[in-house]
C-alpha cells in the first residue's frame, strides 16, 4: 500500500484516536499527532539489525535508524502492523515481539517534513538475512547493542532523532539487556 492510499490514525493530545487520514496528507510542515511504531530486531547472537532509510524518503532520507518504523492502519492491532512492516520492508518475520516503551512520543523535522508521533517501541527476535525493499531501505547492517548505544549517544550521531531518544530510554531502564537475556 502506497502513501496515497495508506491511512494513519490521528490522535488527540491525550493519545486517544480521533480519526484517520491518508499518510501522504499527514506528513508535512504542520503534521498532526498520529500513531506510529518503531521496532528493534535482534538476531540469535543479540545483534541489532539497523537500516538506512531510502534516499527517496520525504523525511530523513539516507539516515541510519533502528530496524523499522511504520504506522498501524485504522483498526489494525499494533503487533500485526509491526509484523506486516517487517515482512514488507525487510522480508523477515518477528518472533517474541514485546512492547518495551508503550508511551514513547517525539517530534522531529527534516526537509520541511515534521514527524509528530506517539510511537510505541517494540523489541523482537528476527532470523535470516533481510531482503530489503529498495523503496524503503538503502542499506542494512548487524551491530552489537553496546556499539549502537555508543553511536546513538555521540554528539555527532548519524542516527535518526527518534532512535537516539528511544535508545536513551531503553538504556535508562535496561530494557534491551533484559529482553536479550530473558
Strand content: 35-45%
Give me the CATH fold name.
Nucleoside Triphosphate Pyrophosphohydrolase
Strand order of the largest sheet: 7-4-11-8
CATH superfamily: Nucleoside Triphosphate Pyrophosphohydrolase
Low-confidence stretches: none
N-to-C terminal Cα separation, in Å? 36 Å
Order of helices and strands: EEHEEEEEHEEEEEHHH
Helical/strand content category: alpha+beta
Q: Would you report the number of β strands? A: 12
* Domain count: 1
Instruction: Give the averaged pLDDT, no decimals.
Output: 96
Give Rg in angstroms: 15 Å
Oligomer: single chain
Shape: globular
CATH architecture annotation name = Alpha-Beta Complex
Query: How many individual helices?
Result: 5
Query: Helicity level, as a percent range?
Result: 10-25%
The main sheet comes to: 4 strands, mixed
| CATH structural class | Alpha Beta
Question: Please, could you describe this protein's structure?
Answer:
Catalyzes the 1,3-allylic rearrangement of the homoallylic substrate isopentenyl (IPP) to its highly electrophilic allylic isomer, dimethylallyl diphosphate (DMAPP). It comes from Glycomyces luteolus. InterPro entries: Idi_bact, IsopentenylPP_isomerase_typ1, NUDIX_hydrolase-like_dom_sf, NUDIX_hydrolase_dom. Its cofactor is Mg(2+); Mn(2+). Mg(2+) binds at residue 89. The chain has 182 residues and is α+β, with helices and mostly antiparallel strands. It has a single domain, classed as Nucleoside Triphosphate Pyrophosphohydrolase, CATH 3.90.79.10. 25% of the residues lie in helices and 36% in strands. The protein is built from 5 helices and 12 strands. It has helices at residues 23-26, 78-90, 145-153, 161-172, 175-181; strands at residues 7-11, 17-22, 34-35, 37-42, 47-53, 64-65, 68-70, 94-101, 105-110, 113-118, 121-126, 137-144. The strands form 4 sheets. It has a 4-stranded mixed sheet with strand order 7-4-11-8, with helices on both faces. It has a 3-stranded mixed sheet with strand order 3-10-9, covered by helices on one side. Helix 3 packs across helix 4 (161-172). The protein starts with 6 loop residues before the first strand and ends with a helix. The mean pLDDT is 96.
Amino acid at each position: 500500500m502506497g502513501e496515497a492510499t495508506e491511512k494513519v490514525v490521528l490522535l488527540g493530545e491525550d493519545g486517544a484516536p480521533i480519526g484517520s487520514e491518508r499518510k501522504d496528507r499527514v506528513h508535512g510542515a504542520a503534521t498532526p499527532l498520529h500513531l506510529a511504531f518503531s521496532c528493534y530486531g535482534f538476531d540469535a547472537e543479540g545483534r541489532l539489525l539497523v537500516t538506512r532509510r531510502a534516499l527517496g524518503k520525504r523525511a530523513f532520507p539516507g539516515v541510519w535508524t533502528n530496524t523499522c518504523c511504520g504506522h498501524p492502519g485504522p483498526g489494525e492491532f499494533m503487533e500485526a502492523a509491526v509484523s506486516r512492516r517487517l515482512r514488507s520492508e525487510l522480508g523477515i518475520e518477528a518472533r517474541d515481539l514485546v512492547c518495551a516503551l508503550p508511551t514513547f512520543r517525539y517530534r522531529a523535522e527534516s526537509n520541511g517534513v515534521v514527524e509528530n508521533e506517539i510511537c510505541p517501541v517494540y523489541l523482537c527476535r528476527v532470523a535470516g538475512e533481510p531482503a530489503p525493499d529498495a523503496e524503503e531501505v538503502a542499506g542494512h547492517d548487524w551491530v552489537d547493542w553496546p556499539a549502537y548505544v555508543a553511536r546513538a549517544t555521540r554528539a555527532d550521531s548519524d542516527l535518526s532523532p527518534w532512535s537516539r531518544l528511544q535508545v536513551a530510554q531503553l538504556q535508562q531502564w535496561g530494557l534491551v539487556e533484559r529482553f536479550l537475556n530473558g
